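Structure first, sequence second, as always.
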């Protein structure tokens, strides 16, 4: 089965073509990061306009790179949520128009399901598995007992881990996006600044607001005292505490569920310290993290997820398909 997929939930315009839920034939991503850096984050109105500008070109390039004809495509998969509603609607309407014009079935895909299924490109999923979803908007632990069966074990009670990275980068004047910069600086720093312990009272949930506030207060206190902040050491201190919390909660979930596999999904899956910690911690079960190409938003992951969604349900959507800014993964 050949799947053409579309992703436009935030600030990447992406179209990909994949085969049989495994093989990526093309994966074109048009990034808007340079446009949003001046604002310290994604501006929804700008993101929507840029999607409109780029979507047709990205469609054409993805088909060209896959060296296929439109008649070879069996299914259209598109992100239906969650995300920025204006951005989502650009991709959804483009996918619907393409599906209608070429008489191809259409299926709407949950964005987080896409991130989870990005791991399928590297390794076959082994069930039951626990997925750690980490990004700017999400920090969740998901149990899967089979393809397209999602049970939420825990989630952040306040800030997502990626959101905390971006806010701390802002207070340290490191620019946007903050995650990759802090990660890079942490590699050459030492965790010399004390960080608070995070105790989520025995659940599988996460909390990053306290850690974020502690770093911000520490930086502001040093500024008031006119004392310099050793930025590399602050980055290392924060990252050590942030990753430790992710690993502790994940280890608890894997142990309690008897999972045979642990996977990491989402933009923060590219974090070097997290990737090292995952492989050091989970030595007795199969572990997978996506290739860097598939950590951030891309259409290939939506195509892979769409393939398995269609295989499980044998249902497709009609042209009334709409987007949603919020959408519970465990309800699909």
């Amino acid at each position: 089965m050949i799947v053409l997929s579309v992703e436009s939930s935030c600030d990447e315009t992406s179209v990909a073509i994949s085969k049989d839920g495994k093989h990526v034939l093309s994966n074109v991503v048009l990034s808007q990061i340079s446009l949003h850096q001046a604002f310290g984050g994604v501006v929804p109105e700008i993101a929507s306009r840029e999607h409109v500008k780029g979507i047709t070109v990205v469609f054409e390039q993805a088909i060209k790179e896959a060296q296929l004809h439109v008649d070879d495509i069996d299914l259209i998969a598109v992100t239906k949520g969650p995300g920025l509603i204006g951005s989502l609607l650009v991709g959804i309407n483009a996918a619907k128009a393409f599906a209608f014009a070429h008489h191809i079935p259409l299926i709407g895909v949950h964005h987080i399901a896409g991130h989870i299924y990005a791991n399928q490109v590297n390794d076959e999923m082994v069930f039951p598995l626990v997925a750690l979803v980490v990004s700017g908007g999400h920090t969740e632990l998901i149990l899967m007992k089979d393809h397209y069966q999602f049970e939420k074990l825990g989630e952040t009670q306040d800030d997502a881990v990626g959101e905390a990275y971006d806010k701390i980068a802002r207070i340290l004047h490191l620019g946007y996006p903050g995650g990759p910069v802090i990660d890079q600086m942490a590699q050459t720093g030492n965790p010399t600044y004390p960080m608070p312990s995070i105790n989520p009272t025995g659940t599988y949930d996460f909390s990053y607001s306290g850690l974020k506030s502690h770093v911000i207060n520490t930086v502001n206190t040093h500024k008031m005292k006119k004392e310099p902040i050793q930025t590399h050491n602050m980055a290392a201190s924060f990252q050590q505490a942030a990753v430790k919390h992710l690993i502790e909660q994940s280890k608890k979930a894997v142990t309690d569920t008897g999972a045979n596999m642990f996977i990491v999904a989402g933009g923060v899956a590219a974090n070097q310290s997290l990737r090292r910690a995952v492989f050091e911690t989970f030595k007795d079960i199969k572990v997978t993290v996506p290739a860097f190409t598939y950590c951030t938003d891309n259409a290939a992951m939506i195509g892979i997820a769409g393939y398995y969604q269609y295989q499980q349900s044998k249902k497709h959507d009609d042209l009334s398909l709409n987007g949603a800014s919020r959408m519970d993964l465990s309800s699909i």
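Margin note: Residues 2-117+294-331 form a domain with the Nucleotidyltransferase; domain 5 fold (CATH 3.30.420.40).
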